[in-house]
Design a protein that fits this description.
This protein is an alpha/beta fold. It has helices at residues 3-13, 24-27, 38-43, 59-67, 80-93, 141-148, 164-176, 198-205, 209-216; strands at residues 19-20, 49-53, 72-77, 98-102, 117-123, 151-161, 180-185, 222-227. The chain contains 9 helices and 8 strands. The relative contact order is 0.14.
């Protein structure tokens, strides 16, 4: 995408009523103005709140919002040029139960209040394969602790990735930090998906731009589903 086109997308997004782009000072070591009130202020309901972290073009957020109008969805990413696509599509289709938050996931704690989020999806994140990049992995210790600060005690976290190393590493990290593993499979579409209930199959059938590329190349899709196990987020 050319620089001119990106700038046009950035400018257009500022006019979208369901896109939020807080400044650094609003989320760094402080609480964002919508923290604790997303459901009431943005969605005008008390429905469950679901985040997609690293949402890219927002395919999962928009796809889930279409299928589950009884839930609220927020796609989170720092790359606005990609996010524009999902935000534009949802606006054109009049989908009212999805919004987008442009911020670094490192600052996610300041954006949501304790027990505000019911579910998290991490869809095909950068595996950050080098040792020096370990702190950037979205299933690493610092992020797993962050999620506890706003995820409900019975909340669920999902991970989908095509990277075998990242899946194996994430599985061990999740176990090591006391989360309860609900589902783990190194080859989601080799039969495991058929074991889920119909609603879960619908969700898992939604494919992001990158997942479509990966599956066309014959990559196995790994899936992990886990939840907190009574940890203290302040510990």
């Amino acid at each position: 995408m050319g620089r001119k086109r990106k700038l046009e997308h950035f400018a257009e997004m500022k006019s979208f009523p369901h896109v939020f782009e807080p400044e650094l000072k609003e989320v760094f070591r402080t609480d964002y103005k919508l923290s604790g009130s997303w459901k009431q202020e943005i969605f005008a309901n008390e429905n469950p709140l679901v985040l997609e972290l690293g949402c890219g073009k927002g395919e999962y957020s928009v796809g889930m919002a279409r299928k589950f109008p009884e839930k609220n969805f927020i796609g989170v990413d720092i790359k606005g040029a990609r996010m524009w696509r999902g935000a534009k599509t949802s606006l054109e289709e009049g989908i009212k139960n999805v919004a987008f938050l442009r911020t670094r996931i490192e600052f996610i704690e300041g954006c949501f209040a304790e027990n505000e989020v019911d579910e998290i999806w991490i869809t095909f994140p950068d595996p950050q394969p080098k040792d020096r990049q370990e702190k950037k992995r979205l299933t690493g210790p610092q992020f797993l602790k962050r999620y506890l600060s706003f995820l409900k005690t019975d909340g669920i976290i999902h991970l989908k990735t095509d990277n075998q190393f990242f899946y194996d590493w994430s599985l061990e990290e999740v176990k090591r930090h006391g989360y309860e593993i609900l589902v783990s499979t190194a080859d989601l579409y080799a039969g495991k998906i058929a074991d889920f209930d119909e609603k879960t199959q619908e969700i898992l059938s939604i494919k992001t731009h990158y997942e479509k590329i990966f599956t066309e190349k014959g990559h196995k899709i790994h899936y992990l589903k886990f939840k907190p196990n009574g940890q203290d987020p302040k510990a």
